[in-house]
Amino acid sequence: MRVLVTRPREDAARIAAALERRGHAPVIVPLLEARLRDGPEIALANVQAILATSANGVRALARRSAKRDMPLFAVGPQTAEAARETGFTHVRNADGDAKALARAAQQWASPEGGMLLHVKGSDAPGTLAEALAANGFSVQSAVLYDIVSVQAEAALRIAFAEGIDASLFFSPRSATIFRGNAAALELSTTLAVCISDATAAALAPLRFGGLRVAEKPNQDALLACLAPG
Predict the structure, then answer these.
(1) Contact status, residue 119 vs residue 52, Cβ threshold 8 Å
(2) Engineered SS bond to 102: which of 108, 131, 169, 187, CB 3.0-4.6 Å?
(3) In the chain, which stretches have pLDDT less than 50?
């Protein structure tokens, strides 16, 4: 299958490699770009653990702190992998979404142990911090990057003219951007594969040849929605 990958380019390269291992032909058209913010070193003196809900948050933190022995609680396997690759030595994986991370963090940390630091992008919701605060934890947020949209209308037209069997969507925002660039695209033979129900809803009213939602909000579950290549 020719599979459209719409993630930021650095993450898209990893997904492309996973698709190739499964016998698919990835077509990378990023709809978003991560811009890491510059700034002073992140203070971690009173932090008992880091909360990471994206690989970009991990990369942004790694640019602004040399400390790698701090416990890091990752939302899922891709974020955990990014943390290990950047040198973090105590990484735990909640294998889910922000709600799963909030539940796991309550098992891995204690309100008395110190503050939890959530490294995140400017558009990330505050639900993780709110859930933990409701259970007595002190949570501070550090906004370390911005996600901006990419002009992709021409690249999408070329990709679909050459044939796309399936399109992967990892967030409601990327689905919304795709919808705004899809007026000239023929989607009737393309399968839309979404990481969540909210992501699928953001594609409406576009009509694809089929639509599937991953059983769990992670990359492996998303790729499992594709037939073998």
Answers:
(1) yes
(2) 131
(3) none
Residues comprising the chain, all counted: 229
- Residues facing residue 147 across a β-bridge: 34
Q: Where in the chain is the domain with CATH 3.40.50.10090?
A: 2-31+149-223, 40-147
* Residue with the two structure tokens 């993450």: 11
147 in Cβ contact with 125 (< 8 Å): no
pTM of the model: 0.84
CATH 3.40.462.20 describes domain 2-31+149-223:
no
In 17-105, at which residue ranges do the beta strands (DSSP E only) sit? 25-28, 32-36, 47-52, 72-74, 91-93
What pLDDT is stored for residue 74 in this prediction? 98
**102, 76 Cβ separation under 8 angstroms:** no
Mapped onto helix, strand or coil, the DSSP state of residue 161 is: helix
